[in-house]
Amino acid sequence: MASQTSDGNFMRNFWIPKHVLVPESAVESSDVDVDGPECPVLVFVNSKSGGQLGGDLLKTYRALLKENQVFDLGEEAPDKVLSRIYANLENLRLQGDRIAIKVMEKLRLIVAGGDGTAGWLLGVVCDLQLSRPPPIATVPLGTGNNLPFAFGWGKKNPGTDEQSVKSFLNQVMKAKDMKIDNWHILMRMRIPEKGACDPIPPLELPHSLHAFHRVSEADELSMEGCHTFRGGFWNYFSMGMDAQISYAFHSERKLHPEKFKNQLVNQSTYAKLGCTQGWFFAPLFHPPSRNIAHLAKVKIMKRHGHWEDLSIPSSIRSIVCLNLPSFSGGLNPWGTPNKHKRRDRDLTPPYVDDGLLEVVGFRDAWHGLVLLSPNGHGTRLAQAHRIRFEFHKGAAEHTFMRIDGEPWKQPLPVDDDTVLVEISHHGQVNMLATHESKSKSVNDPSSPHHHDVEEDDSDDEESKADEFRKFGAAETFKIPDEVDLAHLS
Questions:
Q1: Residue 142 to residues 124, 353, 377, 404: CA-CA distances in angstroms?
Q2: Considering only Cβ atoms within 10 Å of each terminal Cβ, which end of the chain, N or C, has fewer?
Q3: Could you cite one Gene Ontology molecular function of this protein (predicted)?
């Protein structure tokens, strides 16, 4: 009995009364403190992530929390949920409701799913431009789980029993807020004179890249005669052979979803595909014409308004534009440059809120394995506020690209046209980080500063309107019914 009472007292920290969540509900006497919960939470679960785990986790959260605090992303999109709840919170705030005011001040979001699911919720929160954007904790239910790992939530699928969920909620209550940069990505290509209207089948594009709602003709980014896509990312954009392996994995999972119910099996299959696709033997199976330097002209902007060409070694087969120190299941391709590299090449440690992307190159999978060694890193190419890839007619008909774990096969020009991909800083969102967080903030006293980091080393002014562009995650964005949410895991 004492244990049940103790558990009940603990859960009171998270419970939100019904009248706060559901408009026009009667205010009821409840077991929520009169001053409001200490750590009110809303939980979003991709019930199709992690095989059976997503569904089991949904049941456990619903058993522990109040009604209307837990949402299945397969049933209701997060933009609809948050718009409704925040409208009600604002009305109650104007009426002087103390609990509603406390919930607005302290609300935290939990999202359970893969990196694609987490990115969806992050985009929604960013697009809604809430007066008090709530920080977000991520439950790792996917294969790579780079986002959860970067903020200390681990990369292994969690337990779904009540004790495991309570342990996670305890971490959420103790976690600290951390701002992170988010990035806008624009992709533009000429509308083909012949053939299909869409250069890429819509269902094969990442959901975060406006796969279903193109930029409208009235949009400032629209260009006559071109297909223009845009979206956002929080962790990385990559191109080349690493994205090719990811594409092969996703294609295989799409054909045989029944074989991908277990995280360990998924990771093993991923490794096997790396071998069969030639990533470990790239010099033999990957023609030089597919190397990044042959495919694209890359420009970077270190200072606002000043573009410069980025020199890429001819051997580089994969390029990663990285925001967080977590790639391919938690590896850090940038590492921490020593003081000589910082001085000679103007490099800095990888902070997640400094407005800079780290650009790293890899020759092949063996090169990638150096990340497993202490202080190992890829080929550091640059840090930049903006990056532009220009693809012209060349030796390859296509390449492979990936945003936060979601890959696609990108057609390249067959005539004198250009495919343009441009990445720019968009703003910041709030994440929740545990004491084991790998991500470091410029403003965090516990983060290594430029003058005291000492590790060994191997090897035009933009329009302010850019800051207020939407990713399309909310309102204009809807995942079609025919898309399996499991593909976001």
A1: 20, 25, 25, 12
A2: N
A3: ATP-dependent diacylglycerol kinase activity
Cα–Cα separations (whole angstroms), residue 207 to 7, 58, 60, 308, 345: 39, 23, 28, 31, 36
Tokens coding 463: 């329009």
Q: Do 411 and 382 fall into the same domain? A: yes
Do 488 and 207 meet the contact criterion of CB atoms below 8 Å apart? yes
CATH number, position 78? 3.40.50
b/e map of 426-438 (b: 16 or more CB within 10 Å)? Answer: bbbbbbbbbeebb
Spatial CB neighbours of 197, under 8 Å, sequence gap ≥ 6: 191
pLDDT tens digits for 73-126? Answer: 989 999 999 999 999 999 999 999 999 999 999 999 999 998 888 888 998 898
Question: In degrees, to the nearest 5, what angle opens at C-alpha 321 toward C-alphas 216 and 230?
Answer: 5
pTM above 0.85, yes or no: no
Q: How far apart are CA 235 and CA 37, in angstroms?
A: 32
Rounded to 5 degrees, φ, ψ at 444 are -90, 120
- What is the residue type of 270? Y
Residue found by looking up tokens 């796969």 in the block: 211
Residue type, 46: N
Q: Phi then psi for 400, rounded to 5 degrees?
A: -120, 140
Contact assessment for residue 404 and residue 233, using Cβ atoms and an 8 Å cutoff: yes
41 within 8 A of 110, measured Cβ to Cβ: yes
Instruction: Please check whether residues 95 and 201 belong to one and the same domain.
Output: no
